[in-house]
Design brief:
Structural class: alpha/beta
Radius of gyration: 21 Å
Distance between the termini: 66 Å
Number of strands: 8
Strand content: 5-15%
Number of domains: 3
Mean pLDDT: 93
CATH class of the largest domain: Alpha Beta
CATH topology of the largest domain: Rossmann fold
Helix content: 40-55%
Shape: globular
Strand order of the largest sheet: 2-1-3-4
Oligomer: single chain
Order of helices and strands: HHHHHHHEHHEHHEHEHEHEHEHEH
Largest sheet: 4 strands, parallel
């Protein structure tokens, strides 16, 4: 057995797999691709198979939704095996151009969208934003997310959070343009060297701030900071934790009615990755006039939108219906007028599918903070 294979087997505890098949049985993308998670875990133990497996296109179908880990009776994380195989391809330099460009952009500009680091805070224009300074105490240090910061469609999420925090009188601060990618998706794309470097640099940067709590707007940033940054000094929260506290403590009044039928889509990186299910529903339940609906496939059974796992930069070749399209259809069948989400990637994938299904006149996709902005006095 080669040293490389031995290391791979030990790192992912491959010999602990009992081949029950629950990972593949629960994997949402198997309905539209040839991905067989159990087979990958089994075959990687083979002396001659490792590099050949890494070259298989199905390795890039995984969305890192974590269903396989949730279902594994042995507590293994098959998703990490697939990411490990991606790492082999990244190290060999054989990756799709879109993956290469995203990784290079993170290294160069601190974001995967090939945007200038200097324009990261342009979304703050005309807003009364409180900025945090290194060394000065602040209760809540807000981390924005590359996608929200640069995408004009998503900037309303951060802008509404500022308005909400100001109105509630919360002690908070945003970072200057030194804020840089959490690199959750760098890890999921298999670039472990870059990810480790970013974790080290980000940890040093974030620990310069005297913050009690680090509040991430995106579930992907929240999951990374919570689970993959062991040396952060601040407690890590998702914004729904903070907003839920604000509403529960009666620090904010939602004055306007929103007579909509709202169904919430659980983001994988918030739900299945971190067991945050109640806070988003509590917030939506405080919106006057709203009627909350529930998907049949919700919480730990929620259907992935296919936005995670680096899939924003890797297109699956399958022509079968996207999971986000299935999700939109399910919402329409429930009679929902709003498909609510708490993740920027979910906004993009679900809204694209909404337009593809031509349902725009009957329903809309909206991030929770977008909805809260509509009911603030």
């Amino acid at each position: 057995m080669t040293e490389e294979l031995q290391s791979f087997i030990e790192k992912y505890d491959l010999l602990g797999c009992i081949q029950c098949g629950r990972c593949t049985g629960g994997c949402p993308v198997t309905v539209r691709t040839d991905l067989n998670v159990r087979r990958f875990v089994y075959d990687t133990v083979d002396e001659d198979a490792l590099e050949e497996l890494a070259k298989m296109p199905e390795v890039w179908d995984c969305t890192a939704c974590n269903t396989c880990a949730v279902r594994c009776p042995k507590g293994l994380k098959p998703v990490e095996v697939l990411i490990g195989l991606r790492n082999i391809m990244v190290e060999s330099g054989v990756v799709q151009p879109t993956v290469r460009d995203a990784l290079e952009s993170v290294f160069r500009e601190g974001n995967p969208w090939d945007k200038s680091r200097a324009t990261r805070n342009d979304w703050m224009k005309d807003l009364d934003v409180k900025m945090a300074e290194p060394g000065e105490p602040v209760e809540n240090l807000i981390f924005v997310c590359c996608t929200i910061a640069y995408d004009p469609k998503l900037q309303v999420i951060a802008r509404n959070l500022v308005k909400l925090l100001n109105k509630a009188g919360v002690d908070y601060g945003f970072m200057d343009t030194s804020e840089t990618c959490c690199s959750s998706e760098v890890h999921n794309l298999g670039e472990e060297g870059l990810f480790e470097m970013m974790v080290e640099d980000n940890t040093e940067l974030l620990n310069e701030y005297t913050a009690k709590r680090l509040v991430a707007i995106s579930p992907h940033c929240y999951s990374a900071f919570k689970n993959q940054y062991p040396d952060l000094k601040a407690e890590v929260l998702h914004y729904t934790h903070l907003v839920g506290e604000i509403l529960e403590d009666k620090k904010l009044e939602l004055a306007r009615e929103l007579p909509e039928k709202i169904v919430f889509h659980d983001p994988c990186f918030l739900g299945k990755q971190n067991n945050v299910y109640d806070e988003p529903r509590y917030i939506l339940g405080q919106i006057p006039g709203a009627e909350l609906l529930e998907f049949d496939r919700s919480r730990e059974r929620s259907l992935c939108c296919e936005g995670g796992g680096g899939k924003m930069w890797v297109e699956t070749e399958s022509k079968k219906e996207r999971l986000s399209e299935t999700r939109v259809k399910d919402a329409k069948e429930l009679g929902a007028t709003v498909l609510a989400v708490a993740c920027p990637f979910c906004v993009l994938t679900l809204d694209d599918s909404l337009k593809a299904k031509v349902f725009e006149e009957e329903m809309r996709v909206a991030e929770i903070l977008e909805l809260l902005g509509e009911v603030l006095d």
